[in-house]
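Supplementary Text 2. Reproducibility record for the structural model of the 649-residue chain.

All settings were left at their defaults, and a single model was retained for analysis rather than an ensemble. We include the record here because the model underlies the residue-level annotations in Supplementary Table 4.
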Amino acid sequence: MSGGQIDSVMQEDRKFPPTADFQAAAKIGSFAAYESLYEESIRDPEKFWGELARKDLHWFKPFNKVLDWQPPFAKWFVGGTTNVSYNCLDAHLNSWRKNKAAFIWEGEPGEQRTITYAQLHREVCKFANSLKSLGLKPGDVATIYMPMVPELAIAMLACARIGVVHSVVFGGFSAEAIADRNNDAKAKVVITADGGWRRGKLLELKATVDTALAKSPTVQNCVVFQRAKNNVAMKDGRDHWWHDITAKASADCPAEQLDSEHPLFILYTSGSTGKPKGIRHTTAGYNLFVKKTFEWVFDYRDDDIFWCTADCGWVTGHSYIVYGPLSAGATTVMYEGAPNWPEEDRFWDIIERHRVTILYTAPTAIRAFIKWGDHHVDKHDLSSLRLLGTVGEGINPEAWMWYHRKIGGERCPIVDTWWQTETGGIMMSPLPGAIATKPGSCTKPMPGVVPVLLDEQLQPVGPNQGGMLCIAKPWPGMLRGLWGDDDRYVQQYWTKVPGNYLTGDNSRVDNDGYYWIMGRIDDVINVSGHRLSTIEVESALVSHPNVAEAAAVGRPDELKGQSVVVFVTLKSGEANDALKTAMKQHVRKEIGALAVPDDIRFTGSLPKTRSGKIMRRLLRDIAAGKESVQDTSTLEDYSVLAKLRGDEE
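Retained model, structure tokens:
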């Protein structure tokens, strides 16, 4: 309690070692093998990463220095030149993978396409030449605003091929959000589509872009992919159909020889100040880190069918749909639409038909599947699955157990991955053949990742005490700054804990050295001098049989400092005072009187980002009865906020 530590009140003792069969076939098949790899990476990180970079990436010109670290600015593989598009495509063309499927795509209405590495290479080269014909040069910025179609990945890889920096904006953002990002990045081109499909509805993407372009003075051209064949306005001189400009383009486009630190992409993430932050990632270090973490965490094998259910508008899609899997020569499923269209069994249907072996999805989706009912799962044969993963936020133990039993048939290890837009790739996760899992724990750090937990006085915390999660050493996938704003980069991530990267998350380590993420630093609730983690309160509530989802926040309280307010969505039962009382008793039994909510509010849905994270900062304002001034550009459904505010009045 003292010194700014966070009190951990959650007990979770279940442990699931990998099966003997899984271990026997795994690339890293024992805890000793993991420890040896990790120790090697920490003992001499430059030797470790340098050897991997030489072996795993293609270099036009070799690097002469592994790391130049001028805190907080890092340069990796200094002096070397490479190209991410080359490492994803050309590197496979002289092997049997040339005719292997790179993407298996399924549109929401049901169309299917399979694209081999050779076909993908051809399409990327043609589109790269099309961008060159519009005058784009290395260092220029392209905004990409598209549905989940293969052309989204083709556009990303084409930009990477010619050194154009891409800024992918999720295809559900408003015109205002696109214009803000265009202007911050000084984008020269927008790549979009006429429309896309979501829950059976047509999204009018081009119309949204047209509104954004009226406020985007740096954008000179707009390329439009014909997906939905809806009627769209095309402005002469500015707008170009994808099929028209690629029809004339050559399929020969040698990859640019780019400096290891050439910017690869900007990805905007919501900021608490209302101004989005442009996270900047560069070429070689990012490429190596996502390739190796993909291979380690998913125990990747050549016959795997990998499905990451994220959108390429998020970092998960960048790292584990496009750049990580393609660098490793993997086959990836890409799906355009919603998990509940036309029915709530769409995911299980896709897994059965495509014989998916690895599923990587978000806890918020898993909780939705639980709410929708087991009968949707029972209709399908999921026996092809051998490994499950979670990403996006901490997973509560009960959702983990359902995933383990119902989707994994108690045979598939679960890799619960912790990482961020800023980190580029996975930072902590079980290696499935080496590390026994615990429901709700991301277990151990990746090779080369050195986590430290500190209290508010910057002192290390002991076992089972929560503290601020920091990373003590640079790693190849780390962000290189914020686009055009080095001061904000230093201030936000490096000032509070000098010499360490401040993740913004709290965590604890148990007696086995396993890490447990406890939510964002500003998601701690201070009750009568005890600092409670929101995730632990929420996990206790979600283990109640009637609860589908819960979000806990603190509200100012004259007596206790803060009181606990919980917003709950139900999967069954009546929203009444008797159920509130039963829930409070349940929390008391699970984690003690200290964490019992003062106020439980029932709601049909919670405010979430479009990637599925609960926006607790908005709920804090609602709980306190004040008008929010937070950045809401990433909010998925604005009507949720209006309904919650209605409850407030």
